Amino acid sequence: MEGFLPHPWWEVWYVLSLPVVVYGIYRINQLAKERRETLPLLALAGAFIFVLSSLKLPSVTGSCSHPTGAGMGAILFGPAITAVLCLIVLVYQALFLAHGGITTLGANVFSMGIAGPAVAYLVYRGCTRSKMNFYVSIFFAAALADLATYLVTSLQLALAFPSATGGVLESFGAFGTVFALTQVPLAIVEGVVTALIFKYIIQVKGDVMVRLKVIDEKRLGKLKEMISA
Amino acid sequence: MDHALLDDYALNSPLRKKNNKLKLALVAAALLVGVSSTSPVAPLFIALTMSLAAILLGKVPARFYLGLAAAPLSFALFGAVIILFFFGSGPEIFSLEIFGQRVGASAEGAKMAVLVVSRTVSGICCLFFLATTTPMVELFALLKGLRLPDTFVELSMMIYRYIFVFLDVAVKMRHAQVTRLGCDGFRSSVRSFSMMAGTLFLRTMDQGEKLYTAMDARCYDGKLSLFEEKRPIRAQELLAASTYVTVIAALAYLSRGTSIF
């Protein structure tokens, strides 16, 4: 939220996010040199993340909320590139919809564009290595990415506004509990939705996943068999 | 269409004709003063003046403007309540019993909560001013001028172009699903939403390939050139802008440490 984080915290998060974004741009440049169709493809993926995050997710309590879409981006394109896409999407959200803001951009990029996707990527990798079911690993990746985003946001708020009696830890607990009410069910819904999205994509046009190197031919064949069976 | 984007107002704004660098610098200065102010006086002044500028000079309908501000404000108030109860020490001004636990709010916490909300309001108003007076298309040229990497600016431009295309597609799919009872109950809502997102993703990928072919056929070599209209800054505009920045900076300095209570 614009202006919510006081000096020096908004600057700190900018400084922390910057290297990741710079690395992401470097990676995109590299990929674009290798395969020239990269840039248009990534641009469309960015538009997809924006549209997804501006739609309302069906929610348990009737309160509406917005999926982050970042977990999905990380599984498809890797965390560094997702950070760049998230940065652009967050700027647009600030300018078009007045969500987020410019001074808090650094903090938002860190929680939604870096921490979330990094967790999603690591969890997805870990689950794949342990030969877990494809959809279950996507569920965990997306749900845990959501939770990581919310924990980092609580931490950012707690660091900026430490409690008088218990310090950072106590206000972390306070912000965390309040957000947990809405965020834990949401994380589960987002996990389910992301897993279902992948299921539809594989059902309709699985070769996209192979081309993005999310899965290989053999795995795709098996997954398709499972759906038709 | 059921999404009103701020950009639509920017395209019709009378302030669109003013120099973009000046507008951007003005908003950046006001944002910085607002966020670093230690009393709520300067941020509230900035919020008021920016809103008046957007409504009177920028001709944004006042009702639309207020509706816009409601959503981010509710989040800010929510956070402020937590700060109120957990931040700061000193004499308690009031306390509540929640689930058998006594929660007290100190004067310092209240001061902090008011300050944070006022900073947030000032920031939101600055952003609204920029968003309703400067179309995104014109900011791209500015970004290139700031020497941001070409790939970054180009990625932003293409994302910008396709956001509108796919928002339309998504809204159409949503209407189609709703009219076929696709959002009847929680389970089917989740199912419909995932189906829509999956289809949307495949559409974006297809469109990405088409876009590449189209650009390739027109000799795209990794650089899009932009046309930037020259709008010189008039002396009185520069004077007005710098007076405004001086006033808010002075106000923030003079009122430092004071609070409304």
Mean pLDDT of chain A: 80
What structural class should be given to the helix and strand makeup of chain B?
mainly alpha
Distinct helical segment count of chain B: 9
- Radius of gyration of chain A from the CA trace? 18 Å
The arrangement of helices and strands of chain B along the chain is HHHHEEHHHHH
Number of domains of chain B: 2
Biggest sheet statistics of chain A: none
Major beta sheet of chain B, specifics? 2 strands, antiparallel
Roughly what fraction of the amino acids of chain A lie in strands? under 5%
Assembly of the depicted chains? heterodimer
Residue-averaged pLDDT of chain B: 79
Description:
The complex is a heterodimer of chains A (229) and B (261). Chain A has one domain: Orthogonal Bundle (Arp2/3 complex 21 kDa subunit ARPC3), CATH 1.10.1760. The termini of chain A are far apart. Chain A has helices spanning 9-34, 38-54, 70-77, 79-97, 105-129, 134-160, 167-205, 207-211, 217-228. In chain A, helix 3 (70-77) packs antiparallel against helix 4 and helix 6 (134-160) runs antiparallel to helix 7. The longest helix of chain A is centred in the C-terminal third of the chain and has 39 residues, at 167-205. Chain A has nine helices and no strands. Chain A has 229 residues and is mainly α. Chain B is mainly alpha-helical and 261 residues long. Chain B has two domains: 5-134 and 232-254, no CATH class; 141-217, no CATH class. Chain B is 71% helix and 5% strand. Chain B contains nine helices and two strands. Chain B has helices at residues 6-12, 20-36, 41-57, 62-86, 107-133, 136-145, 150-179, 186-217, 235-254; strands at 92-98, 101-106. A two-stranded antiparallel ribbon of chain B has the order 1-2. The longest helix of chain B is centred in the last third of the chain and has 32 residues, at 186-217. Chain B is flat, with a radius of gyration of 23 Å.
